Amino acid sequence: MANLHSKIILVKDINLDREYLNVLSYTEQQMVNLCRENKINEAEDYQFIRPSNSIYTNFKYSECLKANYIAFQNPDYDNKWFFAFIDDVIYQGEENTEITFTVDSWSTWFDYWTKKPCYIIRHHVNNDTIGLHTVPENLDIGEVKQESYDEILNFGEDGNDYYFCINTTYDPTTGSDFEGVCKINGNLCGTFIFCFDVYSGSVGVPNITNFIDKTNKDGKINAIQELYILPKTLVDAIGTTAKHYSATLGSFDCKLLNDSSDVVTIAESFTKTHNFSGLNIKNNKCFVYPYNYLLLSNNCGNYNIYKYEDFSEDNPMFEIEMAVAVGCSCRIIPRGYKNIDYNYNESLPLAKFPTCSWSSDAFTNWLTQNAVNVVTQIANTGISGATGNYASVAGNIAGLIGDFRNAILAPNITGGNNTGDVNFSTRKNTFSLYHMRAKDEYMKIIDDYFTRYGYKIMRLENPNITGRAYWNYVEIGSNEEIGYGDVPTKYMEEINRSCRKGVTIWHNHSNIGNYNLNNYIA
After folding, report:
1. Rounded to an integer, what distance in angstroms lies between the CA atom of residue 431 and that of residue 152?
2. Can the peptide bond before residue 51 be classed as cis, meaning omega within 30 degrees of 0?
3. CB 352 within 8 A of CB 372
4. Which helix (DSSP H) or strand (DSSP E) does residue 476 occupy?
5. Cα–Cα distance measured from residue 113 to residue 120, given in angstroms and rounded to the nearest whole number
6. Residue range 357-365: average pLDDT?
7. Rounded to whole angstroms, how far apart are CA atoms 56 and 89?
8. What is the reported pLDDT for 377?
9. What gap in Å lies between CA 136 and CA 30, rounded to an integer?
10. Which pLDDT does position 380 carry in this prediction?
């Protein structure tokens, strides 16, 4: 005998879809409450004709036309509530309307399964610490722009920040020849190194002229080997001994470079960029590479890209190493980068300081070709992950945004250029740090994408179906199961299929579709 003690609620304005793109994290009782809040009519004593998924009701045809959803109790499941989408409303007579329906698998059984670890393609994270999430998204970031700029000015900026230096085996102040070797920055040197101060206007030329003239008059002109420039920072750190020659005509002052054992080092630190002017960024992945990074340049065609998140300290640390050489030897080294205290493999050389015309043409030509290292190569690693046969919602949108292009991350330079001399003349023979990021238009697109679909995860872990204030997006692998429980197989498979395509789990029915909300970590 048929059981006639079931209830049915006729419901309108339920903003769920039968493709399970948008679902609710409601318990069974919360779903019943939602249906009663939106009910058109409610009745008892019904018999359900389950094979055809239809029911004959005494609701008016006009009432049923306004409805898009029903809730009913099924006597076969101890009066458990089922929730269903209305497929069709068929007039059978006065107050005799047939309703055909499809069970809402997610809402009906959400209370009856437990999530489990599975392979997560993407979801909203519940810990958005900057630098914690760096899996490549392969999104087109467009052309980049400079957010801010830093320049290392330890070489000075007032025009008096360098010395003219002469390597010679003869000391015209004492008339003595150089014998043996000395040690400069730990390297052996077979000459005196005389340094001449730069003075405004004359740039120290009279002292140099008189020094060379005295050397020539002493018959030792061949002792002069090189005339070049060194930064004052380097010379003063090593130390010098003052030298003077007096004469009625031809007096000069200079400094003799002292012996030294160690390379001169200078520490520098900079502030990471964790906010963008004019933008209110919601997702902290926007503050990591390739959307936000540091570009270090020697202003001579050589550059390195550094990822803020790969520095061990809150403020990126660098150390400049300098040693005396014709043209000067200098490099900048990231500290604590990729967990390497001194990451020499990702250091950057400084362009040479000028050599002066006292040098032979052959030497100048050699120096031109060898004083600047080749442009730093940037290695790029592609990461791909199979997502199966299902076309994921987030993946489709990512495809519309476009594929990631490396070329836009750095200037369009094919090799280093020997522009050290003009760099020196324009006061740019130094290291420049450019804090780069995607332009506003692309940054907003990317931030909105993360807001809607969370981050790419690509690993085994528990899916985050809750944790955000208003919604959680979850997408699992094509052969994965999101959970297990007392759920009939066909309904659990429908739940799994929805998660394989990608599903947005809303935590309040009234907010469905409102992506303008601040979906903070609750």
Report:
1. 6
2. no
3. yes
4. strand 471-476
5. 18
6. 45
7. 10
8. 35
9. 38
10. 35
Whether the predicted pLDDT of 361 surpasses 60: no
* CA–CA separation, 288 and 219 (whole Å): 64
pLDDT of residue 124: 98
CB of 268 closer than 8 Å to CB of 348: no
Enter the tokens of residue 251.
Answer: 């007096």
Phi and psi, residue 206, nearest 5°: -60, -40
Contact call for residues 519 and 468 (beta carbons, < 8 A): yes
- The whole-number average pLDDT for the span 206-210 is 90
pTM above 0.70, yes or no: yes
- Domains of the chain, by residue range, sit at 6-104, 162-257
Per DSSP, the three-state class of 145 is: strand
Q: Tell whether the model's pLDDT for residue 23 goes beyond 60.
A: yes
69, β-bridge pairs? 11, 85
User: At 158, is the pLDDT very low, low, confident or very high (cuts 50, 70, 90)?
Assistant: low
Quick one: tokens of 210? 């008189």
454-487 as b/e: b if 16+ CB within 10 A: bbbbbeeeebbbeebebbbbbbbbeebbbbeeeb
pLDDT for 309 equals 96
Looking at residue 65, its amino acid is L
Q: What angle do CA 242, 247, 249 make, to 5 degrees?
A: 120
Q: What token pair was written down for 265?
A: 């080092």
Q: How many CB atoms lie within 10 A of CB 182?
A: 16
H-run or E-run covering 369: helix 361-370
Strands across the sheet containing 224-231: 224-231, 162-168, 192-196, 252-257, 240-245
Cα separation of 26 and 109, whole Å? 10
The arithmetic mean of pLDDT across residues 332-340, rounded, is 96
CA atoms within 13 A on the CB side of 122: 25
Q: ∠138-141-142 over CA atoms, to 5°?
A: 135
CA dihedral 41, 43, 47, 53 (to 10 degrees): 20
Residue 497 DSSP SS3: helix
Give the per-residue pLDDT at 336.
96
Q: What is the dihedral of CA 326, 327, 329, 331, to 10 degrees?
A: 180
